[in-house]
From TrEMBL:
Record's keyword annotation contains Disulfide bond: no
Gene designation: LOC115009402
Signal peptide: 1-26
Alphabetic keyword roster: Signal
The protein's name: Protein FAM180A
InterPro entries: FAM180 (IPR029170)
Native source species: Cottoperca gobio (Frogmouth)
Length: 161
């Protein structure tokens, strides 16, 4: 299960990173039209996640790379993930339902929150001792990943029908 979560998370991050690069290169990204920093922001987020994360006793995400964690951008990243994402299975499902109900493309902040919610869900699924909680977090992770792929590609990875 642990290796599947890592692989799944890397695939989702690669898909979102690839989409950002394509949009910026084409000049079609709303963010790239406002600022030239979206590629560097995506690279930085990717570096933070590749450096490793874990959940502390207070259910906050911490970066394993202490140097990155001490950088201003590292502190901003941790603030975003720890202050702006849901912390329970039901809250994650509620967030996904609300985003789906919008019937329009997500804003950059909403998309970032979605990706970071997947990171948090993956970490929760990985560290649950009870099988039922591990399965619940894994299901949330799959739903968020499926919605993310739909947001990027226009079609779902799988259907619940």
């Amino acid at each position: 299960m642990k290796i599947q979560l890592k692989i799944g998370l890397k695939v989702i991050l690669w898909l979102s990173f690839e989409q950002v690069l394509q949009e910026v290169a084409a000049g079609t990204s709303p963010i790239s039209q406002k600022t030239g920093s979206s590629v560097s922001d995506a690279n930085l987020m990717f570096e933070f996640l590749l450096g490793g994360v874990e959940i502390d006793r207070d259910n906050n995400i911490v970066l394993l790379d202490k140097e990155m964690a001490s950088m201003r951008s590292g502190r901003a990243f941790l603030s975003q993930i720890n202050d702006n994402i849901p912390r329970s299975v039901s809250s994650m499902v509620q967030m996904e339902t609300a985003l789906k109900a919008q019937r329009r493309l997500l804003t950059q902040d909403q998309f970032d929150g979605l990706v970071l919610s997947m990171v948090y869900s993956a970490q929760q699924a990985k560290h649950q001792e009870r099988k039922d909680l591990q399965e619940a977090w894994s299901e949330v992770l799959l739903q968020l990943a499926n919605f993310t792929v739909h947001e990027l590609r226009g079609s779902y990875l799988f259907s619940y029908a």
